[in-house]
């Protein structure tokens, strides 16, 4: 890790490890947004990793952002931290000043007409808590205030707000940005994949810790080979996901907007891993991990939600597979090694 | 917190020239070899091909020039390996000498051993096998019973090595023999020896047919076989530590995830014929896993280049890689439902025929799945 990465890692992991307590997540699930924590996250610059230094950001890369995104997943922070980080990058890319306050992504069909934004985003992350939303409409990035927007509450299985936001001619700050047409879905998949990699790392370390504590038949269950073999599988899945999201982020830094191949691979890989890993983590934890009281489910329920967002693995696999077959059998290896 | 370290490792740009050179060479050499033969990759032995690779300087690439090596980087070697495997080049004859026994001799061998043997290995003329497993010693390597008893001027070896890949074509074996037995510490008293298989009396090599009818591995019986003092490798009793040090090299290379790659390519070719939409999802998944494994394997290569010893990470790569390789014929069957064939049929049918029968060995060779997961569990702090 370089200097900025060490600072970011210490800052985000220190803050979230201390502040994201079980009670804070439970309250968030009951509808109490952790506004004070959000303010600290923002004050620490964690939502502005990809914003240039001249504009008050960290001037970081996607490799730097990965540290924050993984931490957000690992600590199950009930905040739109990842969404804001990406929204602020879209704004920066378009040359729009990044505002203070909770900012989220508006993924949906939008039209811009004379600076007025209209459309529907059916599943907005923390929409009800957000002051601003960022949408992409026909190559333009649009920043709108969500004050007064029509918001219908919804949640995902992790009880994170996923609200329906309807905008009808909302005044927007909009500018053309050099982004691919599918930028919202593409980079949305990247931030969720990073969060998932973080959550998978948590499942692995938490399951190992539990297996070393829980005693049955006179010894910690982690001493049994049956459990060891399962935990080995869980840990290798988590390791694979950490590598592929790091790689996708590195390629996004290196190749500009030509990293769809790696981002697709990352979302597919973490989706596959999440099915295996959540199953093993719950099996190792036994009945206690199935209770609300125990915190394991904060991570597993997020994985079950996030894996379907911004394109489930199967959708990205359809695309990646079609491209691979269309390019031809003998093009696969040159393509993999050229990147 | 993080039990493993997998820092990304980007191949240096200067390796690209080598990659192009290798692809041009393979475009000349491979079309005459049937796909089903190419599917054997690092199990397929072809002495003429090995000599050509030696002439190109692609064996012993990282070794010192004084021993016939080429003093190139581990990254150059990595590129060479992955290109050979992805294309299905028959690199089996020199494989073990290049990957394992040559580096072992560089590290622990005597000057005489190095000078006498390594230049021939690098030329693609001298092949190795590894004598580790025995009838009663598989995963439990410390149960080795083959004895090397001290006699005047050397050692007398008695016992049986089993599943020794390539012993029938190899010039030398690196044998792990028991020079001393301490029942309290079975890991002590093991010693590695260089055995001249072509010029030693008292060695009988008998091929063992595998389930597919191929004879890659052997039973090697030693009956009062004399091995001179000068053929000991490393220290007497140091065999266990020396063998363990080899494993990071053995467990993380591109051969640990590319063994079924030719089938993946042929699957895509079949799906191309069917229009391109069918099977896309499965191919997309396989590509995602392929790309991930390559980055993990490269990460370990980067650590090896820096002189680190990522034995734990290597076990992770081998475990995940074997799952990927073994899954390939299953995916192929689910996607296409075409019967695997032997000795006749299309490239796809024959490659499928070979790999369907061969993949069970992928999680046995080089450390079983269960042993690897035990190593990983230890790394996690569970044992």
Question: Could you give a quick summary of the protein structure above?
Answer:
The complex is a heterodimer of chains A (339) and B (383). By secondary structure, chain A is α+β, with helices and mostly antiparallel strands.
Keywords:
heterodimer, A: 339 residues, alpha+beta, Butyryl-Coa Dehydrogenase, subunit A, domain 1, Butyryl-CoA Dehydrogenase, subunit A, domain 3, 2 domains, two-stranded antiparallel sheet, 11 helices, B: 383 residues, 3 domains, 4-stranded mixed beta sheet, 4-stranded antiparallel beta sheet, 8 strands
Describe this structure as you would to a colleague.
The complex is a heterodimer of chains A (339) and B (383). Chain A is an alpha+beta fold. Chain A is 53% helix and 15% strand. Chain A is built from eleven helices and nine strands. Chain A has helices at residues 3-19, 22-29, 35-43, 62-74, 81-94, 183-213, 225-255, 260-285, 296-306, 313-327, 332-337; strands spanning 103-105, 109-113, 116-125, 132-137, 140-145, 150-152, 162-176, 215-216, 219-220. In chain A, strands 1, 2, 3, 4, 5, 6 and 7 form a seven-stranded mixed β-sheet that branches. A two-stranded antiparallel ribbon of chain A has the order 8-9. In chain A, strand 4 and strand 5 (140-145) form a beta hairpin. Chain A is globular, with a radius of gyration of 20 Å. Chain B has three domains: 15-126, Acyl-CoA dehydrogenase/oxidase, N-terminal domain (Butyryl-Coa Dehydrogenase, subunit A, domain 1, Orthogonal Bundle), CATH 1.10.540; 130-237, Beta Barrel (Butyryl-CoA Dehydrogenase, subunit A, domain 2); 252-379, Up-down Bundle (Butyryl-CoA Dehydrogenase, subunit A, domain 3), CATH 1.20.140.10. Chain B has twelve helices and eight strands. In chain B, the strands form two sheets. A four-stranded mixed β-sheet of chain B has the order 1-4-5-8. In chain B, strand 2 and strand 3 form a beta hairpin. In chain B, helix 8 packs parallel to helix 10 (311-336) and helix 9 packs antiparallel against helix 10 (311-336). Chain B is globular, with a radius of gyration of 21 Å. The two termini of chain B are 17 Å apart. Chains A and B meet through helix 6, helix 7, helix 8, helix 10 and helix 11 of A and helix 4, helix 8, helix 9, helix 10 and helix 12 of B.
């Amino acid at each position: 890790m370089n200097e900025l990465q060490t600072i970011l890692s210490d800052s985000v992991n220190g803050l979230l490890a201390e502040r994201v307590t079980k009670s804070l997540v439970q309250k968030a699930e009951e509808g109490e947004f952790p506004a004070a924590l959000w303010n600290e996250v923002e004050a620490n610059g964690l939502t502005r990793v990809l914003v240039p230094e001249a504009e008050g950001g960290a001037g970081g890369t996607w490799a730097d952002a990965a540290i924050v995104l993984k931490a957000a997943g690992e600590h199950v922070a009930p905040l739109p931290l990842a969404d804001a980080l990406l929204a602020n990058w879209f704004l920066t890319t378009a040359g729009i000043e990044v505002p203070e306050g909770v900012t989220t992504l508006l993924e949906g069909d939008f039209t811009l007409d004379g600076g007025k934004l209209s459309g529907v985003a059916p599943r907005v992350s923390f929409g009800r808590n957000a002051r601003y939303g960022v949408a992409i409409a026909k190559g333009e990035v649009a920043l709108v205030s969500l004050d007064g927007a029509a918001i219908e509450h919804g949640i995902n299985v992790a009880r994170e707000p996923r609200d329906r936001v309807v905008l009808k001619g909302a005044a927007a700050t909009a500018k053309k940005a050099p982004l691919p047409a599918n930028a919202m879905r593409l980079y949305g998949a990247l931030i969720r994949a990073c969060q998932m990699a973080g959550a998978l790392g948590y499942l692995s370390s938490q399951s190992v810790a539990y297996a070393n504590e829980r005693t049955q038949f006179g010894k910690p269950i982690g001493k049994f080979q049956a459990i060891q073999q399962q935990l080995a599988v869980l840990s290798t899945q988590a390791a694979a996901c950490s590598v592929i999201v790091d790689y996708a982020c590195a390629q996004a830094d290196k190749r500009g907007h030509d990293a769809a191949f790696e981002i697709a691979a990352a979302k597919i890989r973490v989706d596959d891993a999440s099915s295996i890993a959540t199953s093993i983590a719950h099996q190792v934890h036994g009945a206690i991990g199935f209770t609300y009281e125990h915190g394991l489910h904060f991570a597993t329920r997020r994985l079950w939600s996030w894996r379907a967002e911004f394109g489930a693995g199967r959708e990205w696999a359809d695309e990646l597979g079609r491209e691979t077959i269309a390019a031809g059998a003998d093009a696969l290896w040159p393509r993999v090694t050229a990147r | 917190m993080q039990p493993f370290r997998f820092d990304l490792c980007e191949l240096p740009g200067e390796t690209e020239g080598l990659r192009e050179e290798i692809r041009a060479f393979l475009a000349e050499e491979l079309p005459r070899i049937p796909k089903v033969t190419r599917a054997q990759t690092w199990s397929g032995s072809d002495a003429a091909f090995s000599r050509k690779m030696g002439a190109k300087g692609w064996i012993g690439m990282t070794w010192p020039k004084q021993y016939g090596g080429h003093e190139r980087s581990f990254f150059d070697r990595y590129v060479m390996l992955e290109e050979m495997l992805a294309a299905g080049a028959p690199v089996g004859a020199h494989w073990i000498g290049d990957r394992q026994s040559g580096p072992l001799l560089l590290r622990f061998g005597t000057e005489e051993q190095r000078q006498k043997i390594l230049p021939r290995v690098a030329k693609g003329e001298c092949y190795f096998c590894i004598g580790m497993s025995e009838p009663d010693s598989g995963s439990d390597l410390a149960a080795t019973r083959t004895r090397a008893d001290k006699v005047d001027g050397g050692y007398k070896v008695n016992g049986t090595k089993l599943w020794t890949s390539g012993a029938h074509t190899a010039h030398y074996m690196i044998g792990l023999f028991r020079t001393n037995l301490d029942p309290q510490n079975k890991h002590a008293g093991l010693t590695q020896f260089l055995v001249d298989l072509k010029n030693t009396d008292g060695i009988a090599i008998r091929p063992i047919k595998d389930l597919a009818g191929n004879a890659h591995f052997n039973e090697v019986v030693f009956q009062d076989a004399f091995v001179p003092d000068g053929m000991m490798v490393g220290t007497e009793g140091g065999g266990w530590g020396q063998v363990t040090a080899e494993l990071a090299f053995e467990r993380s290379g591109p051969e640990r995830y590319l063994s079924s790659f030719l089938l993946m390519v042929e699957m895509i070719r079949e799906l191309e014929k069917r229009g391109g939409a069918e099977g896309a999802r499965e191919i997309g998944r396989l590509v995602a896993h392929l790309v991930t494994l390559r980055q993990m394997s490269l990460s370990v290569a980067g650590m090896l280049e820096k002189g680190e010893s990522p034995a734990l990470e290597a076990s992770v790569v081998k475990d995940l890689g074997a799952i990927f390789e073994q899954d390939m014929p299953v995916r192929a069957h689910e996607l296409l439902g075409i019967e695997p064939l032997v000795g006749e049929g299309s490239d796809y049918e024959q490659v499928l025929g070979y790999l369907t029968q061969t993949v069970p060995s992928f999680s046995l060779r080089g450390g079983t799945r269960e042993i690897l997961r035990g190593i990983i569990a230890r790394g996690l702090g569970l044992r």
